[in-house]
Amino acid sequence: MVGGAATAMAASTPSDAQTKRTTMPPDPAAMPVTMPVTLKVNGKDRPLSLDPRTTLLDALREHLHLSGTKKGCDHGQCGACTVLVNGQRINSCLSLALQHDGDAITTIEGLGTPDKLHPMQAAFVRHDGYQCGYCTPGQICSAVAVLDEIRAGVPSHVQADLMARPQASNIEMRERMSGNICRCGAYSNIADAMADVAGAKA
Amino acid sequence: MKFTEPAGTNPIDRMTVVGRAQDRIDGPRKTTGTAPYAYERHADAPDAAYGWIIGAAIAKGRIRSIDLDDARGAPGVLGIVTAGNAGPLAKGNFNTAKLLGGPEVDHYHQVIAIVVAKTFEQARAAAGLVRVDYDRASGSFDLDSALKTAPLVGGDSNEGNKAPAADRVGDFEKAFAAAPVTLDAAYTTPDHSHAMMEPFASTAMWKGDELHIWTSNQMIDWGRGDLAKTLGIAKDKIRFMSPYVGGGFGGKLFLRADAIMAALAARDVGRAVKVAMQRPLMANNSTHRPATRQRIRIGAAKDGTIQAIAHESGSGDLPGGGPETAVNQTQLLYAGPNRLTAMRLAVLNLPEGNSMRAPGEAPGMMALEIAMDEMAEKLGMDPVAFRVKNDTQVDPQKPDRRFSQRQLVRCLEEGAQRFGWSRRHAKPGQVRDGRWLVGMGMAAAFRNHINRRSGARVTLQSDGRVLVETDMTDIGTGSYTIIAQTAAEMMGVGLDRVEVRLGDSAYPVSAGSGGQFGAANATAGVYAACVKLREAVAQTLGFNSADIAFAGGQVSGGNRSVPLRDAAKSAPLTAEDKIEFGDLGKTFQLSTFGSHFVEVGVDAYTGVVRLRRMLAVCAAGRILNPKAARSQVIGAMTMGVGSALMEELAVDTRFGFFVNHDLAGYEVPVHADIPHQEVIFLEEADDKANPMKAKGVGELGLCGVGAAVANAVYNATGVRVRDYPLTLEKHLDRLPEIA
Amino acid sequence: MKAFTYERAKDPVAAARAATRPGAKFLAGGTNLLDLMKIEVETPTHLIDVQDLKLDRIEKTEDGGLRIGALVTNTALSADERVRRDYGVLSRAIAAGASGQLRNKATTAGNLLQRTRCPYFYDTNMACNKRKPGSGCSAIGGYSRQLAVVGTSGQCIATNPSDMNVAMRVLDAVVETVNPQGQTRAIPIADFHRLPGDTPHIETVLQPGELITSVTLPRPLGGTHIYEKVRDRASYAFALISVAAVVQKDGSGRVAVGGVAHKPWRVEAADAQLPAGAKAVTARLLADARPTEHNAFKVPLVERTIAAVISQARTA
């Protein structure tokens, strides 16, 4: 029991992980403060010098001030941080920036601007595929990638026949978008927006 | 403007902009990631340091010691604030638990410290070096056992849902005993988490003794007031800004720890500080929808006429907290001469219970509308017909008080017709589609509408554009757009000629966003300001204000037509006003109504439930923007699916905390869970509500959905589950044998 | 997150050698490791990024199977035409796990080493023998709906959360490694993951510095490949239980179960009961089950899910 003073509990006891740490802080002198990395963000080389602990997400948001990519959970549980890396979508919160030296990163800002929306962004506006807007950049990046994945024949959990080419059907898109949580519940409209872009019927 | 008489004809009735399905005017910014949220104020606070919150490791007890030495010596650390050095702090009017704990700890993950460093990585690492020793105290963590001795307590959700401790009409017990058909059943709903996508986040910056804070809050004036009170400074020394809010659902109604900790930290380190609460802390640190234990008794004549209805609910909260007002709707929804409602409140040392979307009605309707389904079956009646039979046009407790508008029957009947309800088998367990047992269910939807005072400032600029300023927030509800629509309609200009600025304490105090009161009241406030501005315009242009029209950017009256912008030629014209309410909301009962219809499949093997179809029909006054309103309803339906099928904060009654405190453990619906959703709005304009003739809709869409799902599951399986969420183990052992 | 140093290894043996340094860890996709580093469940002081090791290919083996590079992403593995055709259960298991974003990043080796999702393991205020040996297990007697029902110990009731591992187990995959001395070894998947016993913090048989280089699949088994995953929400959720099966036309076959134990759960004697039906299979599979009050449903759920699998295989 923690420090021996806490009231006894029934079955088991919390550890003292929070309360007693014996490890000393790392010697700052022994640690490199920063390391160089170059990210190719939205087509432009962005050389940075970063604390190795910096995630790709924080590199984008805090160092490049591209805060369109959102931090919803920082643990790969919501999808708000979705960006495209070399054309593939990932959770930028679960990646160190250093893992991406030389990688091409596309963020929501790289897809389109308020004056010149990407077709998927325009479809989200048209179909009201968002409400509070916080998960929206991640949803849009994912949506763009999902249509590419379907075209590339990446299989999904709901595919009846693994050897058949996947289609941009409603259930296929919904399954593939499930890594992007929208608590406002815009799912039905997002599916419509994606169907619009895919040229399919929802 | 005081609203004391039913609204007559007014410029909104033209419905040339209002009432049209408009794309959101904030859409291009939100979809391109260029709308700045609270943690993203790089331009305003370019050198902001980073705060990392430490939450208490125990549910109840005392901090014996806290050792900050290693953390203070860690690289980049600028300061650490605890209760020990924060100075005296008051508790906000809207907070039950104090936001900075220590030395007493009131609940698990209550904030006990914030570590501030130059970088995010440094703050997080240093926080790991803080050592805390606790004296753990025993607490009350088990609702069921705590309710055994809990007293009757009335309550008010602050969002228009209140009920007395106990309320009686007629003689319930006698009528129930005499009724030929009766139901007496118990229902449970678990604790729910708002789980909004944007975490609690604030950037705070002091300019001398003035605090500028960008935060994520639904109610600017409440938040500002409670921040001032907590810090012990004058309210007018705080500029409180929330132009974009990444979801709230009631979780951001009140001042929360991120704001107070950012403010304290910024003062401590002498520079701007930004703080985002770590996701794993959110469920236990903040508020949640309290679990309920409900009992419903209904007695009816053989023809289905309800003679007695009782709804009792128990919930728990920290000392000083209130009950979940789950019985409220039962006072108003169905007829019946003998009635009883009652609420018990247990003291629990779990985190603070408080408002979450449709507080009271959301869990109350989850129970009541299963009970109605059960009762219909006992009576051998169709569930739609049973509800229609017991409709009432007056407040059942005060029969001389009418509903301002009540189209419940139309919602039920139109929904039934559109959904193909007649194809439902009354006998459950009859429909099979491959491995799926298929069922249909329905429920009524009900949620009160409430009036709140709401102000706005409107300016006609020299270029003829209209600027609207109000502290109203847009939490995804579409406020920006409906406010622009209102101003455009009133001033006779196109939507693209209106600029809307929201969520800033520098603007007039509005209704704020909560209790589905935001849209109708905030636009009514804009209406009031626009009426004043029209008068000013008329005067400036030399019109007799009684008979002029504002349309197409022109002001016309008599045989004269003048460009609107001419009124601001020499100087911008500004008008400010607010909507205030007389007694119409007391004379009449203002409520919103609807129906929910769903079809589910239940996997005959695994018992897993999946939605197949969903429909809602809503009657909620004038719908200001059918596109955004529809989104509010589908979003609420989605949350209703979550509460029906998966959402539950699991309580560890040994240690007193919610165990599944992240988005992997607390499951909310994902894309794959939600089929295409249909929403129908009935034509309605409620002249008793406000000049907009509008009411709320954002919570109506949630009330009843869970029960509709549960009733559909019953219709599919023949197994009645009364404990939410309907996870598979609740009926697996009662499903049909498998081959 | 504790401070760490970072390097990119150039070849597998060098990587393995670097990993003998105290506090060193391999970093592949990072989707699990970084998650745990952020809450200081994992506190490496040195990371060896292995992304440049060129272990990202899928090739045929001499005996007609497949060799999957340790760094092949989940997406690439699930999408590989040979995997879809000959090892459908693996393709399906992977597609049932996590999300598209995570599968793009997560690797084959990383997935093998994925750590439990027990909520008490994730909450550093709670006792956990896995996190801190000897501290106790808060999950026992706590909220255990998701946790293990079989192969548990008095020290730990955590489950292995991976979907891929269940399919690997049913396919009798072999894990290939290299150690800091450059020696390689092949570890049958059945032996790779350990039961918790008294040392729940030791989850696999890997030795310090030992690096997974590939996973091999034996020659195709034929038959019908099925992966059934049961969860509360329809996607992006860990399994309550899952069943991986390969069933032949004559009704014989093999079955492994996820979400019930500290490792992907397979019992040879249970395989033999497939023709006899789900009840007989489950009786063997979960003969020694000791569920908690919260997860007792997993036993009948496994049986009913296996029944679904057998029924599907019959109609395939």
UniProtKB/TrEMBL annotation, chain B:
<keyword id="KW-0560">Oxidoreductase</keyword>
<dbReference type="InterPro" id="IPR036856">
    <property type="entry name" value="Ald_Oxase/Xan_DH_a/b_sf"/>
</dbReference>
<feature type="domain" description="Aldehyde oxidase/xanthine dehydrogenase a/b hammerhead">
    <location>
        <begin position="32"/>
        <end position="138"/>
    </location>
</feature>
<dbReference type="InterPro" id="IPR000674">
    <property type="entry name" value="Ald_Oxase/Xan_DH_a/b"/>
</dbReference>
<dbReference type="InterPro" id="IPR008274">
    <property type="entry name" value="AldOxase/xan_DH_MoCoBD1"/>
</dbReference>
<dbReference type="Pfam" id="PF20256">
    <property type="entry name" value="MoCoBD_2"/>
</dbReference>
<dbReference type="InterPro" id="IPR037165">
    <property type="entry name" value="AldOxase/xan_DH_Mopterin-bd_sf"/>
</dbReference>
<dbReference type="InterPro" id="IPR016208">
    <property type="entry name" value="Ald_Oxase/xanthine_DH-like"/>
</dbReference>
<dbReference type="Pfam" id="PF02738">
    <property type="entry name" value="MoCoBD_1"/>
</dbReference>
<dbReference type="InterPro" id="IPR049648">
    <property type="entry name" value="PaoC-like"/>
</dbReference>
<dbReference type="GO" id="GO:0005506">
    <property type="term" value="F:iron ion binding"/>
</dbReference>
<dbReference type="InterPro" id="IPR046867">
    <property type="entry name" value="AldOxase/xan_DH_MoCoBD2"/>
</dbReference>
<dbReference type="Pfam" id="PF01315">
    <property type="entry name" value="Ald_Xan_dh_C"/>
</dbReference>
<dbReference type="GO" id="GO:0004854">
    <property type="term" value="F:xanthine dehydrogenase activity"/>
</dbReference>
<protein>
    <submittedName>
        <fullName>Xanthine dehydrogenase YagR molybdenum-binding subunit</fullName>
        <ecNumber>1.17.1.4</ecNumber>
    </submittedName>
</protein>
TrEMBL record, chain C:
<keyword id="KW-0285">Flavoprotein</keyword>
<dbReference type="InterPro" id="IPR036318">
    <property type="entry name" value="FAD-bd_PCMH-like_sf"/>
</dbReference>
<dbReference type="InterPro" id="IPR016167">
    <property type="entry name" value="FAD-bd_PCMH_sub1"/>
</dbReference>
<protein>
    <submittedName>
        <fullName>Xanthine dehydrogenase YagS FAD-binding subunit</fullName>
        <ecNumber>1.17.1.4</ecNumber>
    </submittedName>
</protein>
<keyword id="KW-0560">Oxidoreductase</keyword>
<dbReference type="Pfam" id="PF00941">
    <property type="entry name" value="FAD_binding_5"/>
</dbReference>
<dbReference type="InterPro" id="IPR016166">
    <property type="entry name" value="FAD-bd_PCMH"/>
</dbReference>
<dbReference type="InterPro" id="IPR002346">
    <property type="entry name" value="Mopterin_DH_FAD-bd"/>
</dbReference>
<dbReference type="InterPro" id="IPR005107">
    <property type="entry name" value="CO_DH_flav_C"/>
</dbReference>
<dbReference type="GO" id="GO:0071949">
    <property type="term" value="F:FAD binding"/>
</dbReference>
<dbReference type="InterPro" id="IPR036683">
    <property type="entry name" value="CO_DH_flav_C_dom_sf"/>
</dbReference>
<dbReference type="InterPro" id="IPR016169">
    <property type="entry name" value="FAD-bd_PCMH_sub2"/>
</dbReference>
<keyword id="KW-0274">FAD</keyword>
<dbReference type="InterPro" id="IPR051312">
    <property type="entry name" value="Diverse_Substr_Oxidored"/>
</dbReference>
<dbReference type="GO" id="GO:0004854">
    <property type="term" value="F:xanthine dehydrogenase activity"/>
</dbReference>
<feature type="domain" description="FAD-binding PCMH-type">
    <location>
        <begin position="1"/>
        <end position="222"/>
    </location>
</feature>
